[in-house]
């Protein structure tokens, strides 16, 4: 069943708020409550002739969930609750009456019991014991299939710790909030229930969660079935079939390609039925897309057995077939994939993200892709798109981007409605020999407690327990829209890779592994003992899978052969375009003025701060022609025109709402009440989404998130803005592994824009350079664009070009700081309406080309220092040409510009950066080539003017900075 019970109105739901002990309030009007319940029952799809049957089933479920069939237990488990209530939103009057009566009994019992006798004191100790199991039972749980886990005694779980003894085992005590199906039970039964719930194959950690409803919900799900629900024979047969598939693929590849790296799943095969259940169950919730970030280990198995990659295609790749014809390609265990599978709730699209060897960096990329898909579907609560991130144990504990990804999980800019995290816990990191060398915490999952995520440690050799933990994890995510972690405790049968010999560093572990049966073998034996399958049936599963593999048949059971393409992101309009530098970015003047008027409008009820009010007043003057257009006006107007033309825009960064240098103020803060108003959200009726958020203090996770977003929404302008350009250092891995190389490795297009404030203002080594040289070093094969715009018109057309062209390449902008308000760095409305982005800006002075003997080439802010020097010193023999796009280098445009100067004797490149930094080393060969095209040998005379080579990007003392700046400008004219 996939339908969900009808919901009462919010007003009616408010009448059902429970008292602290989760029983209906005694103070409430019981007749009103009964009427509400009846109304809710009438809105349910289960009303009518089936009502009594369903009601009886649910009453049975409340007493013992294992007593009802699988499909009904699954349905009842997933019923929604009213917000703020720990009970279910199931309109069953008699059941509510039962809850009420139970609460009355408990109140009466508690009120009547004297508080000072020994019986009462022991009752309190029993309740403390119950709580101790919830807190610390996981430390005693049997979660390690190899039994290598050192378990220190847990005194809190001992009867004597609570001043109880074996003599009390037959005494009946109140069960309190323990889900035991009755008010009182012998201590022996209480302890047995706690041991089975918290100390067997699942170790639950959830008592660190502050929200009482969440804790009660989790207690009910585990305690009601003792963490061991009874699954039907069909369900268990399916588990064994998926385990057989997981083991079968690894065995086949091991025999066919011995010693070849594949990062196999041996020892963790139960991961495959876990993923199968996650996808199928999420489909039952109505999920339409699942995006997966995957570790190396088990990736090939997931591709074949879950996503439905053809085994024959995988074999061809092992034999050397190229996955992409152009570009470098990548190894098999980094490749992404997409497919559609059928679930109880309909067709679901699966997308496996491409992943480099930097392990955890894919996690925020997945979150970005998921958020983009949710925004496209207007899926505000995240029910339609599910993120699943799969980790290795050592990487999860060791890499900081995991913390950053958790930190973003509930923020406005980056939330995705909760992520299911799975750790394939091999209990060893790479070749490290002891957990003490991989982390300082008890578990690799302890980092997840920072966001109060529940954590389920599960024995990888117990498929039934894994199935239960998986169901609870997904249901929790759907119920509370928060992250949840499954720690699949398993082992690695082979070394770090198939060519590695692990016993050299883990001799004791691998002595155990050598004699340890596989998860499939253990489960097959269990099913045989339970009479579910015979040995012949088990062998038939193995033989059938092997036959399918050898025949090249698809082995993912639910694969849709003719998928619904409406679930895909359509990149067709953006494929196959050759590089072109220009696009028609003009805007009708009248329409542009109308849009500018709208973006300057602030409602009467919004009281703006004084400086912000002046910024908007100045913009109105610019629109009227009373002031020259500055950077903030032109940039914001670019966004307005793109929104008007149907392009969504997303802009994030640590100060993006106002701009680090207070030039943007796209978000206006009401001085009366702190509310905000965003004029760009009100450009026209029915406009696309405009999203602008100040990010949390992260670069790596945030930039990776925006990359993932940009690879999923091709028609949008996606911008990440660094607070200072050199702060991108904290996200260097994203630039190296994704932005610069994603297309050549995986054929993955991306139109992400990075705004990196850059310019030498005397602010020291960490606030001057956006490390232009690093980006230029990464440039090849037209993989991205690196631009240094110096006028408002240039940024206007550059931003518009990025979206209007069908070409999708990352854009790196060395954006300005002081130029945001420089009196010379201005434009006019005509340049915005009728211009275009010029990759090379000719000299703007009134020079006679015949008298020019020297040409200074430059980029960025230094241009204005050079023009000031030329004016002050009346140097009419020198032209100053700006190269606004450094990659792809505009050779033709530069040649056409320099042709005007027939008498050039010397060409100088001038930059603010030190000799070993900036554009000099990466771009000088382009400049020499153009100079030689003008005059043979002129390129060899190309001179450099800039700061001396330096280990630091800039001087830390203003006096040194000023002298260096004076000297480099002087050198440009007099070298």
Number of helices: 32
What class, by secondary structure content? alpha/beta
Shape: elongated
Q: Supply the CATH architecture of the largest domain.
A: 3-Layer(aba) Sandwich
Instruction: Give the radius of gyration.
Output: 33 Å
Whole-number tally of structural domains: 4
Stretches with pLDDT under 50, minimum 5 residues: 1-49, 82-115
Strand content: 5-15%
For the secondary structure, the number of strands is 24
Strand neighbour order, sheet with most strands: 3-9-10-8-7-4-6-5
| Helical percentage | 25-40%
Oligomeric state, counting identical vs distinct chains: single chain
CATH fold label of the largest domain: Rossmann fold
Q: State the name of the first-level CATH class of the largest domain.
A: Alpha Beta
Distance between the termini: 81 Å
Mean pLDDT: 88
> By CATH's scheme, which homologous superfamily of the largest domain applies?
Thiamin diphosphate (ThDP)-binding fold, Pyr/PP domains
The major pleated sheet works out as:
8 strands, mixed
